[in-house]
Design a protein that fits this description.
The chain is mostly helical. The chain has one domain (17-252). Helices cover 75% and strands 0% of the residues. It is built from 10 helices and no strands. Helix 2 runs antiparallel to helix 10. The chain is globular. It starts with a helix and ends with a helix.
Length: 256
């Protein structure tokens, strides 16, 4: 999906102070990598330190990253993607806590986070009259945007665990399932008239279980259907790829 495909024809010019990146192939690749990295990093922390301490650290990191993102006056690649990474880590922890600590089944948590996401979209649209990411140039719209992003990560985590664990597909099969699923909104937009904004947000949600499923498959032992590379090495490898892509985005960004 390209910027033109995901932006209404009447709003193809991005505001000078837009706080989000253009939607390109590199955007989607980086987004998927952040989801997998967040999944692996969250699991690594949970296995290394006390889970409650890990959640607290994740919350602090998230607040610091979002605070920096809100403080800057325009889109800055490394600031934006740092916030996305911390949302990914904390969103994973939030979904895992609901299941592990509270004993909530993945199906229930998936439906819960889906309901929260729908409510967030409703309030955002009712307040701002648009859900377009290319209109994020006020503090209130940015707040709605990041609330939506955080909810999509929690929802995607729960949905990925639902297919991999509760439905017994395993991580590799789940990854393949979501790799196919992410093409559906693009095809529906191109061929069947699905709105650009709807197509974007559907694909955005799917990136979470897509990246997380493949990251888990790479990290977990063969007894769980994985490659046994470990959560630490997977976190490090995916982080390096993210850093390289963010550096590329920073160097190739056109002046606004």
């Amino acid at each position: 999906m390209t910027l033109d495909e995901l932006t209404p024809r009447t709003a193809t010019i991005r505001p000078a102070l837009s706080k989000v990146p253009e939607v390109t192939a590199v955007f989607w690749i980086t987004k998927v990598l952040t989801t997998g990295m967040g999944e692996a990093a969250s699991d690594q922390l949970a296995h290394t330190i006390d889970p409650m301490i890990a959640v607290a650290l994740g919350a602090v990191g998230l607040c610091a990253a979002l605070g920096l993102q809100f403080a800057v006056r325009r889109y800055i690649a490394w600031v934006y993607w740092l916030a996305v990474v911390m949302v990914s880590v904390f969103g994973t922890m939030a979904a895992d806590v609901v299941h592990i600590a509270l004993g909530v089944p993945y199906l229930v948590s998936t439906v819960f986070f889906l309901t929260v996401l729908a409510a967030t979209f409703f309030l955002w649209h009712r307040t701002e009259k648009t859900l377009s990411i290319h209109s994020i140039h006020t503090r209130r719209r940015e707040a709605f945007y990041w609330a939506t992003v955080l909810t999509t990560f929690a929802l995607g985590t729960a949905a990925g665990d639902l297919t991999a664990a509760s439905w017994g597909l395993g991580y590799l099969a789940s990854g393949i399932l979501f790799a196919v699923a992410i093409a559906v909104p693009a095809v529906a937009h191109a061929r069947f008239g699905l709105g650009a904004i709807s197509a974007f947000w559907i694909a955005y949600v799917i990136t979470r279980p897509l990246g997380a499923s493949f990251a888990d498959w790479m990290a977990v032992p063969p007894a769980r259907g994985g490659l046994n590379l470990g959560f630490g090495p997977v976190t490090a490898a995916w982080t390096l790829l993210i850093v390289a892509l963010v550096a590329y985005l920073s160097l190739t960004r056109k002046p606004t």
